[in-house]
């Protein structure tokens, strides 16, 4: 299987200083592995979290044999709350209500 790439959402975007993995081969024959991604808030406007429907679901583009498509995992409530807390804190730290792309 190939992890072709990960896409951002309305809440989360790639940190350009720590790019997300692309074209990563996964054999599936060894022990479990972890793919870590560094994220930044994609938006800091007040509606970003209030109107969120899928911002915690990072789309993963994969290829498995002849099949290519997008894997979209539904996170549990604890993960979703953690993402909301992260976005809120990161935006407050940035002191911005604009897009937080490329900010820390």
Q: Any overview of this molecule?
A:
By secondary structure, the chain is of the alpha+beta class. It has one domain. Helices cover 21% and strands 24% of the residues. The protein contains 2 helices and 6 strands; from the N terminus they run ββββαββα. Strands 3-1-5-6 form a 4-stranded antiparallel sheet, with no helix packed on it. Strand 5 (59-64) and strand 6 (67-72) form a beta hairpin. It is elongated and about 45 Å long. The chain starts with a strand and ends in a 10-residue tail after the last helix. The model is unreliable at 99-104 (pLDDT under 50). Residues 1-25 are annotated as: Disordered.
Summary keywords:
104 residues, 2 helices, disordered C terminus, single chain, alpha+beta, two-stranded antiparallel sheet, elongated, 21% helix, four-stranded antiparallel sheet
Ordered list of secondary-structure elements with their pairings:
Blueprint: E1 2-6, E2 12-14, E3 24-25, E4 39-41, H1 47-50, E5 59-64, E6 67-72, H2 77-94
Antiparallel strand pairs: 1-3, 1-5, 2-4, 5-6
Region (Disordered): 1-25
Tell me briefly what this model is:
The chain has helices at 47-50, 77-94, and strands at 2-6, 12-14, 24-25, 39-41, 59-64, 67-72. By secondary structure, it is α+β, with helices and mostly antiparallel strands.
Give a count of the beta strands, DSSP E runs of length 2 or more.
Answer: 6
Query: How confident is the prediction overall: mean pLDDT?
Result: 88
Give the N-terminus to C-terminus distance in angstroms: 33 Å
Task: Tell me the major beta sheet.
Answer: 4 strands, antiparallel
- Estimated helix fraction: 10-25%
Specify the overall morphology: elongated
Helix and strand pattern: EEEEHEEH
Largest beta sheet: strand ordering: 3-1-5-6
Any idea how many domains? 1
Region (Disordered): 1-25
């Amino acid at each position: 299987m190939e992890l072709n790439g990960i896409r951002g959402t309305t809440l989360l975007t790639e940190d350009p200083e720590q790019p997300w993995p692309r074209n990563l081969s996964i054999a599936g024959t060894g022990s479990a592995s972890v793919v870590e991604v560094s994220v930044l808030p994609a938006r800091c406007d007040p509606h970003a979290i209030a109107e969120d429907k899928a911002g915690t679901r990072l789309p993963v583009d994969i290829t498995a044999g002849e099949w290519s498509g997008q894997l979209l995992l539904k996170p549990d409530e604890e993960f979703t709350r953690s993402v909301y807390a992260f976005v809120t804190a990161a935006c407050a730290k940035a002191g911005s209500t604009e897009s937080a792309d490329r900010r820390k």
